[in-house]
Amino acid sequence: MSVQAMSWVLDHSESELAARLVLLAIANHCDAAGRNAWPSQERIAREAHVSVRTVKRCVVALEKS
């Protein structure tokens, strides 16, 4: 878990709602340097309390931003 990566999301990301939850779930899996997060979409969905379909949409939106 990378508290620094999660803190960055909270302080700097302009993402909102489900996309923000998805990004926080991904950040939670980063290494200490804030890199190398590889959780499955199913795991992200479980942790963010959204559907896998929502995770897919959010990831696309986050990549565009």
What can you see in these coordinates?
- By secondary structure, this protein is mainly alpha-helical.
- It contains 4 helices and no strands.
- The protein has helices spanning 3-12, 17-27, 41-48, 52-64.
- Helix 2 (17-27) packs across helix 4 (52-64).
- The protein starts with a helix and ends with a helix.
What does this entry show, briefly?
This protein has 65 residues and is mainly α.
Can you give the helix content as a percent range? 55-70%
For the terminal residues, how far apart are their CA atoms?
A: 24 Å
| Structural class estimated from helices and strands | mainly alpha
Order of helices and strands: HHHH
Please state the average pLDDT score.
Answer: 94
Main β-sheet, in a few words? none
Give the low-confidence spans: none
Please give the count of helices.
Answer: 4
The general outline is globular
Beta-strand fraction estimate? under 5%
| Secondary structure tally: strands | 0
What gyration radius follows from the Cα positions, in whole Å? 11 Å
